[in-house]
Structures are given as C-alpha cells and as structure tokens.
TrEMBL record, chain A:
It comes from the Bacteria. This is 4Fe-4S ferredoxin-type domain-containing protein. The keyword Iron applies. Residues 182-214, 264-292 form the 4Fe-4S ferredoxin-type domain. GO terms for molecular function: iron-sulfur cluster binding; metal ion binding. The keyword Iron-sulfur applies. It comes from Candidatus Portnoybacteria bacterium RIFCSPHIGHO2_01_FULL_40_12b. The lineage of its organism: Bacteria, Candidatus Portnoyibacteriota.
Automatic annotation (TrEMBL), chain B:
Residues 5-108 form the FAD-binding FR-type domain. Keywords: 2Fe-2S, Electron transport, FAD, Flavoprotein, Iron, Iron-sulfur, Metal-binding, Transport. Its cofactor is [2Fe-2S] cluster; FAD. One of its GO terms (biological process) is pyrimidine nucleotide biosynthetic process. Binds 1 [2Fe-2S] cluster per subunit. Binds 1 FAD per subunit. It holds the Pfam family NAD_binding_1. It comes from the Bacteria. PANTHER family: DIHYDROOROTATE DEHYDROGENASE B (NAD(+)), ELECTRON TRANSFER SUBUNIT. SUPFAM superfamilies: Ferredoxin reductase-like, C-terminal NADP-linked domain, Riboflavin synthase domain-like. [2Fe-2S] cluster binds at residues 242, 247, 250, 258. GO terms for molecular function: 2 iron, 2 sulfur cluster binding; flavin adenine dinucleotide binding; metal ion binding; oxidoreductase activity. FAD binds at residues 76-78. This is FAD-binding FR-type domain-containing protein.
Length: 305, 274
C-alpha cells in the first residue's frame, strides 16, 4: 500500500502546512538548502556592553523545505553528518532540528538519499509519497493523501549520469586528486579562476565560514555574526602578522578540490560532491569540475596502470 | 545540545609588558576556578584557548602558565592585528571572554622518561613555557631537558624572569639574530648549540613551536643530534574561526590544526602540500 497525492493538490497541502511551518519552495533555487540552516549571514551572539550580558540567538520557527531533488537530499544527509561530527554545531542544529525536508523527483531511485518525505512522480497527474522519518509521518496525516492499494511499480534502473559515475569510486578520486598536485591542469585553472568564491556559495556541501563582530553605532550592543566564507578567497588562510598559507589562486583552487575529494574522503569516507552541477552552471569563468575530474582521473589511471 | 561556541567570562587580574609589542595577561574565571581534567591539569601544554573581546573578534592563544594552576591562566599576546591591539589597551579589572581548551597538546605520556629538546622562537614560547612548568612539576619523570629559545634581538626574548627560574631545573640556551654589546649567548640557530646538549638520542624527543626557528633547528640541531622525525613534535599556527573542526580555516593537508593538532609529529605534516 502507498500514499498518493494529486499534483494539483500539492499546493493546497503546502498551504495547510503554512499554519504550522514556514514553507519554502526550493525548486530551481540557485543557493542550495544549506542556506536555511547555515545562512549566508547570521547573528549568533549578542553582547550588551552596558549590562555585560551575553546571549545567543535563539530560533523557534519550524521550517518546511519543499522540492529538494535527489542530489540536494543527499547533500543534506551529508551536511547533517558533517555538522554532527566530531562535535555538533549548535547554530546549525537549532534550525535543522525544527525543519522538515520534502523531496520531489521524477527520477527513479534506489535507497532514499535523505529527507523526511520524497514525492515521486508516477504519472503526469499524481505523486507517490515515500515516508522516511517520524517527522514525515506527522505531516502526511492529511486528507490530501489517498491510500492506494497497489504499490506503485518500482522501476528503478541505474541510469547514472557521467558525473555521478565519476563520484561512485570516491577512493580512486581521492587518490587521483592527491596525486594530481603537480599536474598542469592546476596552472591552467589558476589562469581561468577569478577567485570569486561563487562555486563554494552555490555548493550544497561547502560549509566553511568566518566569524565577525559588529558594533552598534551607539556602542551599546555588539553582535557576533557568522557568515559564509570561501577557501578560494585570498584571505582565507591568512594568519596574524600577514603570513598566508594559500597565497596563490592555484593553491586555493587546489585546496578546494583537495577538501572535497581527498580530506572529505579521509574524514567521512566519501567525496563532498553530489554532482548537482551548480558550480559548473554559475562559474563566471566557465570552469567545469566534471571535466577537471575526468582529465585528472584519465591521467592518473595512465600513470598507475 | 551544548553550544560549543559559547565563551565564558574571564577577568584580567594582571597585565605585564614583556617586550615592545608583547603583553602577558593573567586571566581569572568570573566565578570559581578553571576545571581540571583527570590528570589534574587545567589544560594539556600545547593546547590552545580562544580569547575574545566583543566588538573585535576571537583568536587562538596557547596558555603559558603552569597547567596545574587552576586559579588563573596566563596568555601572552603580541599586538599585531585588530583584536590583539584592542586587547593591549585593556587594563587590570577588565573583562573578556574565553572558550576551550582545544586541540591535543603535547603527548605527555609519550615524552615521559625521555630526554627532551625544546625549540622555540620569539612569540612561540607560551606553549613551551607551559610544558616546562609541567616538566618542573614532574622533574624526576624526565631526563635531560634543554630549551633552545631564539629571538631577533635580546629585547625580543620574553619572560626573562621565568627563564632564570627555569635554569635551576633545565638547561636554557638562548640565541638571537641581532646581538647587542652585552650579549653573551649564541647568534642564530647554529650547529654549535649541539655541543651544549647531552642527550641519549635513542631515548629523546623534541618539541617545537613557531615557524621561525623550525627548519633551521631541524637541519642544524635536531637531525644532527639523531632525533627521528617521529619524535619531533611541532605545534602549528593557523587562524581558526571555530576551534571544533568545522570552519576549514586551519586545514593543512588532510588534518585540522584545531582538532588533530595543534601538535603534530613532524613526519605527519612535513609532506603536506600546504
């Protein structure tokens, strides 16, 4: 047995949920869902200079993120893991714990990549709801869903795109990227890359940040805010006194790859990339990371034969 | 869920000028003492704390006081940036914030029973100072202990009163790059320093802090002495924003200085591309 919702009823269901949740439709969003839990900029502490009281920001709102595709769901599963281990990130979980993720896909898939519910298109007019967590269970108890006696056919066929295929063997990818440090491709990319950081902002699995204090004009209140940073930006690895561990674009761009495919693999056992394609789409210099990885892999395999 | 970013209040109970741009701050907890771990230590020498002044930011510093001392923590701060210069303007009685300690610290159990060469330069002395205090409190557990401390000029050598005190328990070797007329110590990180060091290289470790003297000491002193790279412990410096392995600023190779370090075996990091 499965639950079915009519396509035209989805918006009514979401409307009903608005009573309880802040509902965000994230379909076709340039910025990935990380922005709701690790916002581009957020106040984390407020220090009152007169009373000398320090308070942290508190977040009460329940959020429902609707329309995540399979890649974004997988990215959220990975980001949850990153934000949980080795130690939990308070400000991320403060928002994430109160949120529900609803996926939406036309593709068939094997094991669910993440989220609380996934809507899978079964025909032009209907979606089948796959409930994955208790949180999902709670919000699906609604007259908009009809029980369907026959389970919709599982027609899962492994139709992986080329980028996905590259990511399958994250061990080889880690070895190849670590090996590639002297490869000419990094010199070529250093000439192309504008060091703008867009690839990291649109990446659902880039999560680096910096912390900055702001003081009110009347000097009464100070806010400590955390904001997205990007390891491709010039100041990222600079320390007091001015020494910079990643002075050149080449070092920074390589570091970005090194983190995603080498350090991430050694830390979590997989690449921190879900082939969503955002970094390719929005790179103003037209860098295509799938092509970069393919070239490195090809040369690596030639050498290691 | 515990908020690991939340700092606690500390009061400056003493400030001391150590050189033209370096000051020591003695910090006391708002209420009560600093808590101790199962080894009776407030922190492991080599660990760092994050000090913050609201309105200016937060930065890591290695405590310089004895790790057994729970009524205060000393931090040594060179005024080189926004936060550190603002801290230099603070006086006794002012309040700031702290969190930590973080990181691993020097491997105290491993270094026990061994001879030890400590190498540091200029402002890298605080974690080494804490380690020396640990050695002094457990003097019979260590063999010969040698401190090689270098600075640009004699005036840049910090904690001169403590260096004197340490001389009773360990051998202190001082070296400067630009000596003045009265200078009687060494000049530069020179091979001759070896003549003053009597250790059993097979049962010796080295602990270093600060990038300045590191490579020179390695090539001219530690390797010639016969101390293997696995037994050389290096404390690294990076700017960190979180201290708990998230923000990515302190990454080097596949390690995070804040979590996996700041103290590394030399051969753990010497092949890192960055």
């Amino acid at each position: 047995m499965s639950l079915i919702i009519e396509k035209k009823q989805i918006k009514n269901w979401l409307k009903e949920l608005k009573k309880e949740f802040q509902v965000i439709d994230t379909r076709n969003s340039i910025l990935p869902a990380k922005q709701y839990f690790l916002p581009p900029k957020e106040d984390i502490f407020i220090f009152n200079k007169k009373t000398k009281r320090l308070t942290n920001s508190s977040y009460q709102r329940k959020t429902l993120i609707f329309g995540l595709d399979l890649n974004d769901l997988e990215a959220m599963t990975q980001l949850d893991e990153i934000m949980k281990n080795p130690q939990p990130d308070f400000f991320y979980w403060q928002k994430r714990e109160k949120s529900v993720l609803v996926g939406l896909t036309e593709e068939s898939f094997g094991p669910a990549p993440g989220g609380d519910i996934i809507f899978k298109k079964i025909n032009p007019y209907q979606y089948q709801a796959m409930i994955l967590t208790e949180k999902g269970e709670e919000i699906i108890n609604s007259p908009f869903f009809k029980k369907n006696k026959t389970r919709a056919n599982e027609d899962f066929k492994d139709k992986l795109g080329s980028f996905r295929k590259i990511l399958l063997d994250s061990e080889v990818l880690a070895d190849a990227v670590a090996w590639s440090i002297g490869h000419k491709i990094w010199d070529e990319l250093a000439k192309k890359c504008l060091s703008c950081g867009i690839c990291t902002y649109v990446c659902p699995l880039c999560y680096c940040f910096s912390v900055e204090d702001k003081v009110n004009l009347d000097n009464a209140k100070c806010v400590r805010c955390r904001q997205w940073d990007a390891c491709t930006l010039p100041h990222f690895a600079r320390i007091a006194g001015g020494h910079n561990f990643h002075k050149t674009i080449k070092e920074r761009y390589y570091n970005w790859f090194y983190h995603k495919f080498v350090r991430a693999y050694r830390e979590y056992g997989r690449s921190q990339c879900v082939a969503c394609g955002r970094c390719q789409r929005y790179c103003p210099a037209g860098i295509d990371i799938e092509k970069v990885l393919s070239e490195i892999l090809e040369d690596y395999k030639k050498v290691k034969k | 869920m515990k908020n690991l970013y939340l700092p606690f209040k500390v009061k400056i109970v003493k400030t001391e000028t150590l050189s033209h741009n370096v000051k020591l701050f003695r910090l006391k907890k708002d209420k009560g003492k600093f808590s101790k771990d199962k080894n009776d230590l407030v922190f492991t020498p080599g660990q760092f704390v994050l000090i913050s002044l609201f309105g200016y930011g937060e930065s890591p510093f290695g405590p310089a006081s004895s790790p057994y001392e729970s009524s205060y923590i000393d931090v040594v701060i060179r005024g080189v940036g926004t936060l550190t210069e603002a801290l230099h303007n603070l006086k006794q009685g002012d309040e700031i914030f702290m969190r930590g300690p973080y990181g691993n610290g020097f491997p105290l159990k491993f270094i026990e029973g061994k001879d030890m060469v400590l190498v540091t330069g200029g402002c890298g002395i605080p974690p080494i100072a804490a380690l020396i205090e640990y050695v002094r409190a457990n003097r019979n557990k260590f063999g010969g202990v040698y401190l090689i401390y270098g600075a640009k000029t004699p005036a840049d050598l910090l904690m001169k009163d403590r260096l004197k005190k340490w001389e009773k328990d360990i051998k202190v070797l001082l070296t400067v790059d630009e000596p003045d007329k009265e200078w009687k110590g060494y000049v530069g990180m020179v091979t001759e320093l070896i003549d003053d060091i009597k250790i059993n290289a097979k049962n010796a470790v080295a602990s270093m802090c600060g990038p300045g003297p590191m490579m020179g000491a390695l090539e001219k002193i530690l390797r010639p002495l016969g101390i293997s790279d696995r037994r050389i412990f290096v404390s690294l410096e990076r700017k960190m924003q979180c201290g708990i392995g998230k923000c990515q600023h302190c990454a080097t190779g596949d390690k995070y200085v804040c979590q996996d370090g700041p103290v590394f075996y030399f051969d753990q990091i010497d092949k890192n591309w960055d």
